[in-house]
Design brief:
alpha/beta; Rossmann fold; 6 helices; about 30% strand
């Protein structure tokens, strides 16, 4: 009986796929219209890369870069990027930290202190990011790792549904913080939109 049910379910799925029934999933684009098909409305590597690249481009043209050039390559550490979505993307966000470090190293404006070599900082940041952000702790972290600046951020989403349609907007928010004062020196938000349309 179970085998018959599975066979029937497989037959229905194959038939539906071959006839083109059902909704199609698409990704929003910077150009007019929509680009190539995605597997779903969840965040994927391409979405995260797109948002990261836009944020890093905005940073490269910001006043913080001129400040770093005057300071002759100050030390910077990249903190955890918080996941405030329902997506299971923690490993992708951990990889994003390495991407940010690589971009900053190759740009040559700062010296990058890897968070992987600072286990105490990582644990402190995990505790700190479990609740509301406390800027008074930034100076303490900076002294702990010898960093003058921090890059941090978060990913969040807005999910909208109407009848058979669904649209999810994802945002990557990034900041550069002064480790001595907690001042925000750079702040930017980028987004991608994904939708299921009929």
């Amino acid at each position: 009986m179970l085998r018959q049910r599975l066979s029937l379910a497989l037959l229905i799925t194959v038939t539906a796929l071959s006839t083109g029934c059902g909704p199609s999933v698409v990704r929003g684009s910077d150009v007019e219209g929509l680009d190539d098909e995605a597997f779903g409305t969840g965040l994927d590597r391409r979405d995260l890369e797109t948002m990261l690249n836009k944020n890093m481009k905005a940073m490269q043209s910001s006043a913080v870069i001129a400040r770093w050039q005057k300071e002759e390559r100050p030390a910077l550490a990249v903190l955890r990027i918080r996941n405030e979505t329902s997506e299971h993307i923690d490993s992708a966000l951990q990889a994003m930290i390495s991407d940010i470090e690589t971009i900053m190293i190759n740009a040559g404006h700062v010296r990058v202190i890897s968070q992987e070599s600072q286990p105490g900082l990582v644990e402190e940041v995990r505790r700190q990011h479990s609740g509301a952000f406390d800027p008074s702790q930034v100076s303490k972290w900076g002294k702990q790792v010898g960093a003058r600046y921090f890059i941090t951020g978060k990913v969040f989403s807005v999910d909208e549904r109407k009848e058979d349609e669904r649209r999810v907007q994802y945002f990557l928010f990034m900041q550069v913080l002064d480790a001595e004062t907690g001042d925000i020196l750079f702040q930017n938000k980028t987004s991608v939109t994904k939708a299921i349309v009929n």
